[in-house]
Amino acid sequence: MENELSRTVDALPGLVWTAFPDGRTEFVNRRWCEYTGLSVEQASGEGWLAAFHPDDRPALLESWRGTIASGEPGEAEARMRRFDGVYRWFLCRASPISNTAGEVVKWCGINTEIEDRKRAEDALRVHEQRFRLVLDSLPTRVVLATPEGDIFHANRHTLEYAGAAPEDLKSWKTWIHPDDRRVVDDRLHASISTGKPYDGETRYRGADGLYRWFHVQGFPLRDNEGRTVLWYFLQTDIDDRKRAEALLAAEKRLLEMVAIGQPLPAVLDDLCRQVEDIASDCRCIVSLIDPEDVTFKWGAQQHLASSHLGPEDGSPVAAEGGPCGLAAATKLQCIVSDVASEARWTQPWRDRFLAQGLRACWATPILSSTHEALGTFTIFRSEPGDPTPFQRDLIGQLTHVASIAIEHARSDLALKRSEKGFRAIVETTPECVKLVARDGTLLRVNSAGAAMAGAPYAEALVGKNFYNVVAPEHRSRYVEFNQKVCSGTKGFLEFDIINLRGERIHMETHAAPMRGNDGVMMQLGVTRNITARKQAEQQLRRSAALMASVEQLSLSGSFCWRPESGEITCSEQLYRIFGIEPGVRVTRDMIAARVHPRDLHLLQAMIERAQDGKDLEYDHRLLLPDGSVKYLLVQAHATRDPQGRLEYIGAAQDVTERRQSEEALSSLRAELAHASRVNSLGALTASIAHEINQPLAGIMTNASTGLRMLSAEPPNIDGALDTVRRTLRDGRRASDVMTRLRALFRKEAVTTGAVDLVEAAREVVEILRSEIRTRRIVLRLKTADDLPPATGDRVQLQQVVLNLLLNAVEAMDGVDDRPRQMLLSIGRDAGDSVRLAVTDSGVGFVPEHAGKLFDAFYTTKGEGMGIGLSVSRSIIESHGGRLWATPNESSGATFSFSIPCHAHSTAAADRPGATAQVARADDEQSVRNL
Ligand code: ADP
Q: For 851-901, what is each residue's pLDDT tens digit?
């Protein structure tokens, strides 16, 4: 049996052995010996150990001892040395053989070569190590999970990102953003249960506590039978992409807001909100710059509302004002990495920021397309630092969007303003502004246009065909014109319309082609109602023709003179009067060359007067090149042209004939007057002789008295001196009489000036003095106070006074039944005139003869000439006054004249010399007392 067992054991393919209960080897089979090259003897006892690798022996021995002590089967792995010295791995298993009492009586063991398995295991281990190495070195995050979904491995990146160790993997769900956990759970469950790949985007918390977005893809790994062995998950960091997407979305949204015309504050507010959403650790403000006064204006701010950190509203854009001011002033980004150590601005500035817990501040100018600073975009952070590339990108992009929004708002405002202004102009313009389509349809028209067309409001006309309003005879011309304009040519046309009220209106239109939004050309026309102008033109033409014939008939020509430019425009007739070739440009020198040299001073005076812008009226003569003399009466009215320049519109009348006849008349009148005076004075010869004789007699008497006094013993010197004085007085009296008479007899040219009527009358009275006295007449003189001088010729006026006084004297010739009384009164008359009246108590006249008295050669006197009153009246009338006679109530008559006062004279009261010579009104004196 032993041998049989031995043979059986030997035949076994494994290396079989037996051992005593204490562990000593009892037997090894042949294969064992063959393999190790040891004999049974060599292996017995403790000898078998030599068949094992020295490194494995201690562990093997220890395991074997443990097995023996336990009495239970045991196994151990160790390398056995083959006979040729090569070690191979074996699994050594030992099982106890027990007797019925349960005691181990023997150990039986078998060593099975496991070299292949070991190799495979090693290879797997190496493979696994490599796999992990590969996983760890993958730039992406990889997580492995059991088929049930329990995470059992995460690669290095995953752990590093989370700041976790492999053992923390159990709590991997806490790394997920709370908002994403449910979705992850649901998705994971769905994938595990269905075996379909996992796909999702999830935020995972990093070691810095911040979440980033990851794209997570999970795939099942299956064995040959298709069973899921594990799940592997790839997590790709898509945070930058997500942010870029968010940035892009924000930009898109903001640009949409701009495009649909959202107000600028709403756009900027949204911008700030979006920035803070995308870059959650940032705070943002936008400040605007007012282009008017270059100051900061409130823009937008999200979370800093409690304390505004941007520049003060209205503060100037200046580098000293802080980061925003510096950025706006220099148009460069201003980065304050750490507010605490910032030295560019003063302490209060830093304190303000630090108090808000802000450490970094990055201000970026918002620049327009023309590089103008529109505002600033500023980001604040509670941590010091510079912007990350993403943040730079964010700032860059959104600053650009802000610039678009601001520029859009500005241009929108400008457009609205200009459009509003333009509409207002179009609406308020008195001219018709209209848009006409090529086919004549009225597309738009303003209120003025509607009013012209006789429509109640503009809308009533829109859509109607404008051609229908055009007067039929002008229609084809207008259609042609409209089509020409709609083809791109500007144009001008005069035409008539018959408006809705049936009125014909003359129109003048300036039109330009305009392309509509649809690209179709139309006519933009500005049309003016020229009916009034047309009528005025017609009127003007008529009146010009009339004027020309009037000028021709009246021998007058009109002119327009602008003193400032010296420009003179003359009518045809005036050219003729001046003897200038029609059409020649008339100058002042040309006129001066034709003015009579003796009247040049008048022209000069007229020019000087024109400086004051006063109306002009002058008489002067022309001495024409042919030696002929013309008299001109020039009258011109001063006006201002629309530009406010002085302009004289006047007429010059050729009054040569009139002047000549006037001159003839005047010389005739002078002759007549002289004759009348001589005649009157002739009648006075006796009294004049007496008047002269009297002082002469006095002189003679005085001379002889004086002689006597001087020849007395002793000579009476004082008496003689007295007589000499009297002689002188009488001589002067005689000489005065002669002077006055000479003046009246003189034939002098008429001169006009201020005449003190009282004094002039008094002189006449002096001449008549003896006549009056001889005829026993009482003359009283009554003069008003403050009497201004009259205008006229002194001698002529004296002649009138003389005539009236003489007539009065003569009228009282036959009066013996009543006192012969005369009153000479001089006083003011209405309308700045002076009145002189001679009242007598003579024969008077019957009222029926009152009209005849002034006729020439009417006389009731035997030796009368009947020209005194006629001459007197013409004198007074030539003085611009009148002479009239009224019968007195009781007896006699009153002859009065009234002439204008001297224009430039002051009242007589202002001339002390004058008053002294005139008797006061209340101081009536008889001529005897004079
Ligand atoms: P003459 O004295 O030569 O007649 P006048 O022309 O001076 O010529 O007078 C015309 C006439 O008017 C006088 O003849 C006289 O009849 C009348 N007349 C003039 N003065 C007076 C007077 N004071 N009272 C009455 N009749 C007068």
A: 789 887 888 887 777 888 888 888 898 888 999 999 999 899 999 999 999
**pLDDT score recorded for residue 747:** 57
pTM score? 0.39
Contact 869 CB / ligand 1 (< 6 Å): yes
Residue 842 Cβ contacting ligand 1 at under 6 Å? yes
Q: Which numbered atom of ligand 1 lies nearest the CA of 844?
A: 25
What was the pLDDT predicted at 481? 95
Q: Which of 118, 411, 482, 158 is nearest to 264 (CA)?
A: 411
Give whichever of 203-207, 628-632, 785-789 has the largest mean pLDDT.
203-207
Q: Relative to the CA of 863, which ligand 1 atom is closest?
A: 3
Q: Is 809 in the pocket of ligand 1 (CB under 6 A)?
A: no
Angle (nearest 5°) at CA 466 between 463 and 468:
115
- Please tell me which residue, 250 or 758, carries the higher pLDDT value: 758
pLDDT value at residue 915? 31
Amino acid of residue 586: V
Question: Of the candidates 220, 211, 125, 205, which has an alpha carbon nearest to the alpha carbon of residue 168?
Answer: 205
Q: Exposed, middle or buried: residue 827 (CB in 10 Å: 0-12, 13-18, 19+)?
A: middle
Q: What is the pLDDT of residues 296-328, one digit of tens each?
A: 887 777 665 446 677 778 888 888 888 888 999
Write the CB contacts of 236 (distance below 8 Å, at least 6 apart in sequence): 140, 141, 214, 215, 216, 217
Q: Which of 465, 463, 435, 439 has the alpha carbon at shortest distance from 449?
A: 435
Question: Which atom of ligand 1 is closest in space to residue 860's alpha carbon?
Answer: 14
Spatial contact of 482 and 436, defined as CB atoms under 8 Å apart? yes
Tell how far the Cα of 860 is from the centroid of ligand 1, in angstroms.
7
Q: Measure the CA dihedral 84/88/93/97, to 10°.
A: 0
What does the block give as tokens for 249? 């979305």
852 lines ligand 1 (CB under 6 A): no
Give 687-720 pLDDT, tens digit per residue: 677 767 777 888 888 888 888 888 888 888 888 8
The residue written with tokens 């001297």 in the block is 902
The alpha carbon of 774 and the centre of ligand 1 are apart by a number of angstroms equal to 20
